[in-house]
Design a protein that fits this description.
This protein is an alpha+beta fold. Among the domains are: about 180 residues, no CATH class; about 100 residues, no CATH class; about 160 residues, Galactose-binding domain-like (Jelly Rolls); about 70 residues, no CATH class. The chain has 29 helices and 24 strands. It has a five-stranded antiparallel β-sheet with strand order 8-7-10-3-15, with no helix packed on it. Strand 5 and strand 6 form a beta hairpin. The longest helix has about 50 residues.
Length: about 900
């Protein structure tokens, strides 16, 4: 970005003064042209394409060429010659599919006499499923999609991928852009019950998420509130940068210095997302299954409501006596349950197989008489983990006086032969024989499954003598292994006498049981045959519906922005029915200096715009996002339609009509062809909002079909080729290069959709994960898929892909860095994947070609799309004889002609 001297001066003065503007300043209140008069906020009006002279009329193929030719004429720049067919097919293949054409496809296209062969090629490529994969990758750059949370711990985000698949599908079906936008902001509300409506809201949660700031620091603390403020900032920034190419994030701390965005505007946008958190959401992709599940949920709700009404009727009939008994029962239950952190316990290390033995044991200090051993399952409310997680499927309990259990031991319980039902947190009691032992050991022979791995967990283990005393309380605990950090999972929790559902003492437990019996007896004496029958029938129907819903297939999960209850320190708005958090303007962006409360709204596009949504006082959370989605996609929006056509243009030419695709403000670049931008925006907006039709317009133009040959005289006039007197030569992106190598090696697996492949070894996932790329085997066939399906890590990015300018998923990348470095050549030559694929490429050539010369020529054609010259063929054959065909293939992977597109 080039800063204007006045802009630099203004910024310097602002920083020197150290003053933030007064909250509520209106950027429009300035003398002379104000922010609302800027070009990008003016209505999109379809301009008339300029008339052309005879020479350009003969050259032009569609309206795009009229605008380009007219601007070139102003600069005295002629157009370049037409690219040859070999160049064109390679160009359009990489542009639309991100893959090279085969030699057969190149030869057939070059030899095709049909004058419409190129147009038909474009149509064929747009219909390919590979198209959606290619263009989804562009979109995922912009929305900073990743498969980990980022920040300090950067834990895996295993259910982000359905959003990525949604983007691939949407491009392939050519979804109207307005709907594509609406689904990502409010699809769950605007298109309820649809798969796309759910998965699309992964957009809201696409960016980084501070695990520590949310899951370990409560919102009642300042650091927790700061984390949530930053989280909403990411949602606002992602929405506005992506859909309307407007930078709003600086208004978190001060009114925008140049554009029509003040702090009140900004915090109104935060209010739109004030009820949301990032979390997994369960759903059924199949519409029929989703409909069945919804019907069962409705039945369960209805039956529960009816049962509640029946209970109220019984309560009314029971009068004061039943009311008193019910009150006593409630009071006893409250007293009988402890509250201080009972949900955690001992957790073993995580393993990847269920049949790995795990054990944990208690040292009672000396041999004592043992009457009973009790196990209580662990419970965790975080992320709906629930009761009984980690309770072993098969296990045994032993007692011994040998800490190693190598000598004689007594078997208290043996459940190693058959899988056991998970008891949740119901205490499991096991009688002993009263003999004296010092050590008690629980051994799991078959571990419980979590999502994708296995663990032994237990909330409490008690050892009682004949008097009922708990001999195990606070005694030393040892284990095969354990997780000691965080402290809530350490092994000493096994004997801390804190667990879910425990009663304070035996006397209280007996009193509770007696009161429950009296309560039940009184109710039975009240209900007559009709009420009893209705109650039984409703309870039976409820039980059946709950059983049916439990028997349904396991739902899929997607990581989205949603109303969430949370768990542990992470408390969402679900407890309050999704009531949005209160949003206030923060003085200087400081969470400790809140000012006026604001309601939901958005940017003002004109001076008279109030910037607020006219929502009812009792509106739902989703109404805010629906209002935003409709605002973004309204026909008269000046930014939305310009933004998307500019992005598509950029990916075809290397630079957008506006060179700053995420910033259409005064600090961004001005459009090189403003009339063309508006014509494309109007054409796109008013004719179905089809991305594929926009491609056809651009790709079928004479402008796009130009040669990339340079001209010294023209370079002096327009060194950056902003007026497109030739086609730009462009470097292949990391993904296109990697995918091309897999295709050339014959190893590409074109499996679409599903969880991403991991080209790393994951270590220490339970705390701060390590993503070890160097330990991964490049011959692992699971990673030989298209790069769009790669599991994207934010903190430890893939070194090879990063060297090739791959996008950083922690940042919105509207335009990739196109730096050329020596490291790239070294990586292409020596990376383990490149070496392995060169070997496969060579093996395939040796099997399919009769001799070295033929193999070299075929390798060259496959790599760059043309036959080698006599000298190239001779040099390569000599090199192959000296160093082998595999090394020749490595050399070909390093050719500029392979890694660049003309």
């Amino acid at each position: 970005m080039i800063w204007h001297p006045k802009s630099i001066l203004a910024a310097a003065l602002f920083l020197a003064l150290g003053q933030a503007p007064v909250v509520g300043n209106d950027p429009s209140d300035k003398s002379g042209p104000g922010p609302f008069d800027f070009w990008s906020l003016q209505p999109v009006v379809r301009p008339v394409p300029p008339a052309l002279g005879q020479a350009n009329r003969d050259w032009a193929r569609n309206r795009i060429d009229h605008f380009i030719a007219a601007k070139r004429a102003e600069k005295n720049l002629p157009h370049s010659g037409k690219a040859d067919r070999r160049t064109l097919i390679r160009r359009v293949f990489f542009d639309l599919l991100g893959l090279p054409p085969t030699p057969e496809e190149v030869r057939a296209f070059v030899a095709d006499p049909d004058p419409l062969a190129y147009e038909k090629l474009v149509d064929r490529l747009l219909a390919s499923p590979r198209y959606g994969e290619r263009w989804a990758r562009h979109w995922l750059d912009v929305v900073h999609y990743g498969d980990t949370h980022g920040y300090d711990k950067d834990k895996p985000r295993p259910n982000a991928w359905p959003y990525r698949d949604y983007v691939v599908r949407s491009f392939n079906v050519d979804k109207p852009y307005g709907r594509f936008v609406q689904e990502q902001v409010a699809g769950d509300a605007l298109y309820p019950g649809t798969r796309d409506g759910i998965e699309a809201t992964g957009f809201i949660a696409a960016g980084p998420w501070d695990f520590i700031g949310h899951a370990e620091v409560p919102e009642t603390k300042l650091d927790g509130r700061i984390a949530r403020n930053i989280d909403r900032d990411d949602m606002v920034k992602n929405t506005m940068n992506t859909f309307i190419s407007t930078t709003v994030q600086c208004a978190r701390c001060h009114d925008h210095k140049f554009d029509a965005v003040n702090m009140t505007d900004y915090y109104r946008m935060q209010a739109v997302f004030a009820a949301l958190d990032r979390a997994d959401h369960e759903y059924y992709p199949n519409p029929k299954t989703a409909k069945k599940h919804a019907a069962l949920e409705k039945k369960i709700t209805t039956h529960k409501a009816l049962l509640k009404q029946i209970e109220l009727d019984i309560q009314s009939r029971g009068g004061a006596k039943l009311t008193e008994l019910t009150k006593q029962l409630d009071d006893l239950r409250k007293k009988a349950t402890t509250t201080p952190r009972p949900e955690y316990g001992y957790h073993s290390q995580i393993v990847d197989k269920p049949d790995i033995k795990k054990w944990v044991q208690i040292d009672l200090g000396e041999p004592v008489e043992i009457d009973q051993v009790t196990l209580v399952g662990a419970s965790d409310s975080y992320n709906n983990i629930g009761d009984g997680f980690g309770f072993p499927v098969r296990y045994k309990i032993e007692a011994s006086n040998d800490a190693r259990f190598a000598e004689e031991s007594f078997l208290i319980a043996d459940h190693t032969g058959v899988d056991q039902k998970n008891p949740g947190i119901a205490p499991q009691h096991f009688k002993a024989n009263g003999s004296k032992y010092r050590y008690i050991r629980l051994t799991a022979t078959k571990l419980a499954k979590r999502s994708n791995d296995y663990i032994l967990a237990m909330g409490e283990m008690q050892v009682r003598d004949a008097s009922g005393a708990n001999l195990a309380k606070s005694k030393p605990v040892t284990a095969l292994d354990s997780i000691e950090a965080p402290v809530r999972w350490r092994r000493s929790n096994l004997v801390d006498n804190l667990f879910n559902g425990q009663t304070s003492d035996p006397e209280l437990a007996r009193h509770l049981a007696d009161t429950e019996a009296a309560h039940t007896e009184l109710i039975n004496s009240i209900v007559d045959g009709e009420i009893a029958g209705k109650r039984r029938k409703t309870q039976a129907a409820l039980t059946k519906a709950e059983a049916n819903i439990k028997a349904m297939p396991k739902p899929q999960r997607v990581y989205i922005g949603k109303v969430h209850t949370g768990g542990g320190a992470f408390r969402g708005t679900g407890h309050e029915g999704g009531k949005p958090r209160t949003i206030r303007v923060l003085h200087r962006g400081d969470m400790s200096q809140p000012r006026d409360e604001v309601g939901p709204g958005t940017l003002r596009l004109v001076k008279r715009d109030g910037g607020t949504f006219n929502l009812a006082g009792d509106h739902k959370e989703s109404d805010r996002r629906v209002a935003l989605a409709r605002w973004l996609t309204k026909t008269e929006h000046p930014l939305t339609w310009r933004s998307i056509v500019n992005r598509v243009w950029q990916y075809h030419f290397g630079t957008g009509i506006v060179a700053t695709p995420n910033d259409f403000g005064q600090m961004g670049a001005k459009p090189s062809h403003p009339e063309l931008l508006d014509w494309l925006a109007a054409e796109f907006r008013d004719n179905g909002q089809s991305i594929k039709q926009l491609h056809r317009l651009i790709l079928n133009s004479a402008t796009y079909r130009q040669s990339s040959a340079t001209n010294a005289a023209h370079e002096k006039i327009d060194s950056q080729n902003r007026y497109l007197w030739r086609m730009n030569r462009r470097q292949l992106e990391a993904e296109a290069l990697r995918d091309s190598v897999l295709v050339l090696a014959g190893r590409m697996n074109f499996q679409m959709y599903g969880p991403g492949f991991r080209d790393f070894v994951l270590e220490h996932p339970e705390h701060s994960p390590h993503y070890e790329y160097y330990k991964h085997d490049p011959e692992d066939v699971s990673i030989h898929r298209r790069s769009v399906y790669r599991f994207l890590v934010r903190s430890q990015q893939q070194p090879f892909m990063t060297t090739l300018n791959c996008a950083d998923p922690s940042q919105q990348v509207a335009r990739r860095n196109d730096a050329i470095t020596a490291l790239q050549s070294l990586a292409l030559l020596n990376n383990k994947l490149m070496v392995a694929m060169a070997r496969h490429f060579a093996n395939d050539l040796q099997q399919s070609q009769p001799n070295t010369q033929s193999a070299v020529s075929e390798a060259f054609f496959r790599t760059v799309g043309r036959a080698p010259s006599n000298k190239e063929a001779s040099d390569l054959a000599t090199y192959t004889q000296q160093h082998g065909l595999a090394n020749t293939c490595r050399l070909l992977f390093n050719l500029n002609e392979f890694s660049f597109v003309d």
